[in-house]
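We close this part of the discussion by returning to an individual protein. In the encoding step, the backbone of a single protein was reduced to a row of integers, each denoting a local shape. The sequence in question and its structure tokens are set out directly beneath this paragraph.
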Amino acid sequence: MEDAEENSMFETSHVLGALLASSPLLARAWDRCAAATAMGAASSGFLHSGGDVDGGTVYVAFSGVQAALSVAGAAGVASGADVFAPVELRGDAAGARVFPQLAAAEPDAGAGDGDSVAVQALALRCFVKLCGSPEFQMLLNQIKGKEVVFTGHSFGGAIAALAALHYLCISSSSPASAPVPPVLCVTFGSPLLGNEALSRAILRERWGGSFCHVVSQHDVVPRLLFCPLDAVPVRIIVGMQLQQRLGCTRHACAVSVRVTESEQEALRQLIQAHIRSVAMEQKLAAPETRGGSPYRPFGTYVLCSLDGAACVDSLTAAVQMLYATFAARCVPGSVTSLEAAHSCYGDLVLKMPQQLLFKRRPNTIDAPVMVFNSNYDAGISLALEASGIHREATEGTTARHWLKASKRAGRSPSMNCAGLAMRLGKITPSRAQIEWYKASFDADMGYYDAFKLQRSTKKFHHANMCRHKLAQFWDGVLSMLDNSQLPHDFHRRAKWVNAARFYQLLVEPLDIADYHRNNLHRTRGSYISHGRERRYELFDKWWKERDALAGMGDASTTANRLRSKYAGLTQDPCFWARVEEARELTERAKVEHDVASLAMKLGSLREFERYSGELVESKEVSIDVLAPQSSYTLWVVEWKELKLKDEIRTALLFQI
């Protein structure tokens, strides 16, 4: 069975890597990185170029020289535990202000730890300082609404990633009046930036596809922070960064850091030992309990060599391949010194497209012909070769096993989406049962009140069971989305946005009824602010984004569309929660003696009367809202009595 499944699979890591390597994106991004690094301390820390020559795309490159200088100029700094210490955004005022969504992200207890989002101290300090500058704020205004590529090399890559996260935060928190333009962050040899909580938060926000980390086979910097922080040799790493500005061009720098061969080998062995211990762990949670580093990767990793490139976007696979490519023995002609391995990206982006053309030539008569059992097996071999792991390498067997394991652990997002569509069809009968339940009470009290009062016990239990089945399905959808198992644009696809909206309008009234039947509004508070499930809030966001996109085509279409009959489902999913609040407020107003307090309550009730009246007049409510015994109909009667009572009291006061 496993063999049959494997024969039907395809390994696309090398295909995506070849596509990226053959595009001009990497070369253009590196050119900007080289220019920003060459400017060094004389610049504001970043360099941007207009998009006229790049198809409208704006490139913003960040230099890491100033970050290195801040470390080199600090007296007494000898330990990586000081320079690269993780800083929790929630507890840092500046970090929480710059990254509000990430700072507010709740720790995921189910993932094995309770850590909140934390990022590298050096990168955070440099970016916060940069973010407060007038030049950077002016840049944000200039790039608003444009396609942007943030990029950087080494420390500059970590700052570029923070800049991209900040841009995504401010773009997603702005009113949904227009879709956010594509944002991409391309880093070259960048050190790890944050802990696993950051990786999970980025997945939950569906930002993972915006980050592309290019890593050469023997570069120590992207792998450095897998080591215990107090063992990180700050002098060597800072020195490598400062050397870049002396000769940073598209070709490798000729300047080498003053580090002995024994120090270089010791650093390689240190990194290899610690990254191996992480790679061998299939579950990467709670690294601190093993005495290691808290840092973990996020986004897509492009593992490149002179033989090509391979892309991996799984956290587990990224760590494992970072180890396997680093541990593979050096082939003749490959770079060996630390500085050369860290500054070789100019050569790589120049030579990889050429190498792809040579690799497509057919085998000569003297070359061995490789026979593979399936296309999938051939794809695995090509991915390993492209990342620099050749067939004779001792790490080849282990890396092959890891790639296959990561593939079996989760199908491609597109395949998952197709499977989810089949499951949606299977769950449809549960939705139909609730529709039938609704129709059976439309003429009496409506299905909201029938469910709240548990009328017709058999029907109630059946509807309640279907409600739980549907909730389980949609929570599973969001879990897959949070774990990047679905396409990045899943929440914008009309089929799923409409399906989620229909489910919400049909089922959330039952959740509201259950909430009030169990008197949770008295113990927890208002349903709208304290009782809504996360899925409903997300579905609201999807629908608003869908309306914003539709409004760009014809802003007057929705406004001028009038219904000829009542909607099948009330278009405000929280309508019944507002009705319950209005009824409770009406009861309190009846016994209120304080004039000022009574005036406030009556004002709130008049506002709800206006709002609900507009919904009814525009036929944006279902017919069950106007059922003779519905909570809304009963409130209308109670409100009329209260208004009459208030009018009589007001008239008596004027007579006095």
About this structure: The longest strand covers residues 148-153.
